[in-house]
Amino acid sequence: MKILFFYFLKFYILQLSNIINYKRTDIYGIALNVFFLKLSMFWFVKQAYKKNKIMDAKEISLNEKQVKPVVDLLNDYLASYHIHYQKLRGCHWNVKGQNFFTLHIKFEELYTNAQLTIDEIAERVLTLGKPPHSRFADYIKESSIKEINTIGLHDMDMVDALLDDMAKLIEMERELLEATDKAGDDGSNDMVNRFMQFKEKNTWMLRSFAGKK
How far apart are the first and last CA of the chain? Predict the structure, then answer.
């Protein structure tokens, strides 16, 4: 492999030098040099792609075709979680009123957990052999959760907004549990189940705080 690499590198430099110095003035000769230059560059790119290719799902005994719906749902879930996370940060920064100390601390607990969750979701997508969404444009486009302006928002309206987010995320998690079960993806199933249980408990706590049934 290394011998071939240096051979093509030497050939590449030699042919490039020929073109620059016009040692071969014949138009067909130049065209041939360009062809071999492109061929050698294609070979380098192909080898680099093989070396850096994202892990395939089959490496963890999963069928790539079967886990594709899981990956798609996980990326949508990741996008929604990013919007939820930023909403939590906004609530933490902008909460005011008599419940400030209680909610300021609670919102920080929730966004710290959301940050860790986001990282785990993204790494699971990579483990399944696909790239996770990593642009805010993608998050906004794919998210099932909508942004809100938390500046000046009443503290209990913040709680209501976060409860709505959690309900939507739990709905997505139940869909993911079905998809992962169908694909035989126990790893993703366990992960999502853990995230769902955390939100179920916090839904109960926030509803109790707000005096809801």
Answer: 68
Q: What is the Cα–Cα distance from 71 to 203, expressed in whole angstroms?
A: 26
User: What average pLDDT score do residues 164-168 get?
Assistant: 98
Q: Distance between CA atoms of 46 and 3, rounded to whole angstroms?
A: 16
Distance CA 13, CA 197 (A): 60
CB atoms within 10 A of CB 70: 26
Residue 46: the pLDDT is: 47
CATH T-level fold of 57-209:
Ferritin (1.20.1260)
Q: How far is CA 128 from CA 138, 140, 187, 188, in A?
A: 20, 23, 10, 9
Contact 183, 67 (CB under 8 A): yes
pTM for this predicted structure? 0.75
**H or E, element range at 57:** none
CB of 18 within 8 A of CB of 24? yes
